[in-house]
Amino acid sequence: MDDAARWCAKQQGSHCGTLRAVKVSRRIHLREIGTEGKSNKFVDYLENARGLLNQSSFEYRNSNYTGAEELAIAAYLDNFEHVEEELEKKSSHAFMEDIEHKMREELRDLIKDKAQQSELDIHINATDAKLVEAINLLKGDN
């Protein structure tokens, strides 16, 4: 049993799920580095970000605001940030910056302000739609 699993076994709160999700995100990131020729690493980063944003909504729904914020931060820092330059090359600075702003500032502000779940989900869905658009651009499916 690793340290994270031991810690989770002692905890009763929902931080355990958050820790696992962030750990999985980082593990996926490390696996991607070794498989660059087999997949589009930029698309993988964006898919990871999408999953983390959905997990963030789940944690928020369960009143784990700290966990929701940590997942939102991981979606941006551990994933989207690695795609910004490539996305800007394939689209525009404004498009890339719009997604960045939605993830880095707006989402975190909603979480910190403890906005209504429906408002948070609307924002995550709008961000997700932009991420899907970015994925299609990076795949060349535009």
What does this structure look like?
The protein is built from seven helices and no strands. It has a single domain (3-139), classed as Four Helix Bundle (Hemerythrin (Met), subunit A) (Up-down Bundle), CATH 1.20.120. It has 142 residues and is an all-alpha fold. The protein has helices spanning 3-10, 15-33, 41-61, 65-77, 84-90, 93-112, 117-139.
Number of helices: 7
Count of the separate structural domains: 1
| Secondary-structure class | mainly alpha
Q: What is the string of SSEs from the N terminus onward?
A: HHHHHHH
Helix % is: over 70%
N-to-C terminal Cα separation, in Å? 45 Å
Outline:
Helix content is 78%, strand content 0%.
Tags for this entry?
mainly alpha, Four Helix Bundle (Hemerythrin (Met), subunit A), 7 helices
